[in-house]
């Protein structure tokens, strides 16, 4: 049983179904990537999980019990893609206000604000209005306001938008630390390289439906195409390399990328080069990136049936 379990969730609008019979489980302390093209239903799904929208069908279990927005909302931190800071309000006052909305006392909130403002080096902006901050600085304030009450479930929608590489790494490290300390995180983004680097598990949705979900490593393994990169001490011509055990995909500066044929094994590849007396310097299986899996699955769903 996970911290969050979604069962057969559905949400209909007048013209379309935004979420269509989606189920998944998020283990406690994991970083869960929610992926999908624009209009896939991600935002609607997140809003149901946070109690902003009510599902038309299905169940949401939080900590093993039916989700109760009134009671459970203080255990959730949600940073939406459309940022919600008040432009005319001072940064410190805003952080204090949002912390108290999440059930913290003024004393607790001030102590936490000092800790996080020190850590993110933004004390100089405490009495500045939000509209005076850069987009990246506003993003840091939004992030602090989202995690300040130490939520059990943290939902981050495009958290790196507007951040430079240094501040992106700062936020990324905080995400890892929070997960390490038991926070369960839903991470929604379009940047696939971040998903691969940050997430333990992912779910891909398209047109309101779940396409796949599981551990990142397992998904990459499941979609492998038996491709291998072979590094060689000398690069022979095609005639020397050719064998029925594999086909040549491409030649590289220091070797080849090959595709294993059905019925053959990696040992057959290695044995072939040994017989040719061509020293092998490296041998690596090429697994598809999450971006490649994402594109393949979305295109497969959208291809018309002839």
UniProtKB/TrEMBL annotation:
Any GO molecular function: ATP hydrolysis activity
ABC transporter domain ranges (all copies): 4-232
Domain of life of the native organism: Bacteria
InterPro entries associated with the record: AAA+_ATPase, ABC_transporter-like_ATP-bd, ABC_transporter-like_CS, ABC_transporter_ATP-binding, DrrA1/2-like_C, P-loop_NTPase
UniProt xrefs under PROSITE patterns: ABC_TRANSPORTER_1, ABC_TRANSPORTER_2
Keywords: ATP-binding, Nodulation, Nucleotide-binding, Transport
Similarity field: Belongs to the ABC transporter superfamily.
Protein name listed in UniProt: ATP-binding cassette domain-containing protein
Provenance organism: Chitinophaga silvisoli
């Amino acid at each position: 049983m996970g911290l969050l379990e979604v069962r057969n969730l559905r949400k209909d609008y007048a013209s379309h179904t935004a979420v269509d019979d989606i189920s998944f489980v998020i283990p406690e302390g994991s970083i869960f990537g929610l992926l999908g093209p624009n209009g896939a239903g991600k935002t609607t799904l997140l809003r149901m999980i946070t109690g902003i929208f009510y599902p038309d069908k299905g169940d949401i279990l939080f900590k093993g019990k039916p989700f109760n927005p009134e009671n459970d909302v203080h255990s959730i931190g949600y940073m939406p893609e459309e940022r919600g800071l008040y432009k005319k309000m001072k940064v410190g006052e805003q952080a204090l206000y949002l912390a108290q909305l999440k059930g913290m006392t003024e004393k607790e909130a001030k102590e936490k604000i000092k800790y996080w403002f020190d850590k993110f080096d933004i004390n100089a902006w405490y009495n500045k209005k939000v509209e005076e901050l850069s987009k990246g600085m506003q993003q840091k304030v939004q992030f602090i306001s989202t995690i300040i009450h130490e939520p059990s479930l943290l939902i981050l929608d495009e958290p790196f938008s507007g951040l430079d590489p240094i501040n992106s790494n700062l936020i990324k490290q905080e995400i890892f630390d929070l997960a390490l300390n038991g926070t369960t995180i839903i991470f929604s983004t379009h940047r696939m390289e971040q998903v691969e680097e940050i997430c333990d598990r992912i779910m891909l949705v398209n047109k309101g439906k779940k396409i796949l979900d599981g551990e990142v490593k397992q998904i990459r393994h499941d979609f492998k195409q038996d491709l291998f990169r072979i590094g060689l001490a000398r690069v022979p011509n095609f005639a020397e390399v050719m064998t029925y055990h594999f086909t040549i995909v491409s030649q590289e500066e220091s070797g080849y990328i090959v595709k294993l044929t059905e019925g053959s094994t990696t040992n057959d590849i290695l044995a072939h080069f040994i017989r040719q007396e061509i020293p092998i310097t490296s041998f690596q299986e090429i697994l598809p990136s999450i971006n490649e899996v994402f594109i393949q699955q979305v295109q497969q769903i959208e291809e018309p049936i002839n």
